[in-house]
Amino acid sequence: MIHHEQCAPYFSSTAQFDRFWSAHVDALDRHLSAKRWALAAVPLVMIVYPIARIALSAALHGVVPDVVRTVLHLM
Known about the structure:
The protein is an all-alpha fold. It is about 85% helix and about 0% strand. It is built from 3 helices and no strands. It is elongated, with a radius of gyration of 23 Å. The protein starts with a helix and ends with a helix.
């Protein structure tokens, strides 16, 4: 059985982690075609879109009643 500590890289600084992460992203850029990136974007959009719709409607619901009350009070 392999222990997690033996497989996980150790980072002594944030800059070292950033370089490690950047190397992985660069490797993905080199090996994935535009078609694969587009296919990977579809699930991301399917997850983010409903969350954004819920968050925006909640924000509007929180702001609009105050604005309407203010305008009605000024009339």
